[in-house]
Specification:
alpha+beta, five-stranded antiparallel β-sheet, globular, 34% helix
Length: 258
Amino acid sequence: MAEGNRYKPFYSVLVLAFVCSAMVAGAAVGLRPLQEANKRLDQKKNILYAADLYDSSKSVDELFKNIETKVVELSTGNYISEKDISPADYNQVKAALNARLSNPLASGTDIARLGRLEKYSLVYLVKDGNAIQQVVLPVRGKGLWSTMYAYIALDKDFTTVRGISFYEHGETPGLGGEVENRKWQRSWQGKKVYNPDEKPVLGLVKGKATTGDNGQYQIDGLSGATLTSNGVSKLLEFWFGDYGFKPYLEKMKGGLDG
């Protein structure tokens, strides 16, 4: 076999691999805007699910027209001007990753096992005219295997749960993965985040929530998923505490509107 012919199959495979790689890379780049659009659509759907406003007969954008997105500073509870930070452009997950070195959480305060905390958060105000009917808040925390992400909606008293939607996690299917079960999520409706002393006490219990006064602060535990259940309780305690949304919600309860 001639020297050139010996390497011909190798060159053919090399060229084919290069062409395929270029096609895959081009497809990925071309599809990125569509993927981002679908991600934003899914985000809006989960916010609507949490607020109990989702209606499959209507478009998501139509349902979302009465929801105003704002950026709030967690430590003060103050809104940030759109001139400083645009809600449409603010990526909270990316901000949390960037906060690893600049704003780490001490082990004694990091009960949700976040590792770091972003300085600002998005909040979603469900309005009827100028009146706020609900506020939807993004929360997250570690379960057994993963970080669980959710939106939780509070009524206009800023303590009664209107709904919750867990939209991303890596928990065990059929066990901890039941956080995405819509029937279980509906059981959150009407529960209270804060007790009369303004302490965040809402959490999951082993078995079923009681029917007495304490039941308003209890969510049915996830069967066979104790560590996931504990993780949900801890993320609630963190995000409705002093390091989370408590400064903001206190201002809202006082009528200061951030």
